Amino acid sequence: QCTWDTTIQPDPKCVETPCYYDNQTTCEVDTDCEWDAACPDAADQKCVPKRCSQPDHQSQAGCVKDTWCVWTSSLTCELGKCAKYPTEKCCDHDDNCHWDITSSPPVCGEKYCPKTYPTQATKDQCDADSKCMWDSGKQACVEEDCSKLDKC
Question: Which helix (H) or strand (E) holds 2?
Fold first, then answer.
């Protein structure tokens, strides 16, 4: 089975879709696969290819070509914070994530505001950004909710 994958940059291509195992035991026998239990609903858990640890991900350039991966300050390639959610339903469970349909296949990506202004120390910058607002209850920068504001 083949899937068009735009996460491979700069040249997306059709790639064989591995890891079609229907149970955790069989999945984990394949060293290129892992059981994804990130979703709260067991029906959404599945076998997926290991990401961000292949030989071509050992450099920053190789890592960032894969939109699922991020290059860390410890100089390692890791799965992005939201990329662990394989479906839109799972992605929507995390307030910091959104389902990105501009990618093919679609992926779960980090929302702009929490990613850009991640801490209390960035509160003033968050409030100054017209796309964001500081949520005192969550103590986090969130996407501006137009239903609660007069300025939208």
Answer: strand 2-5
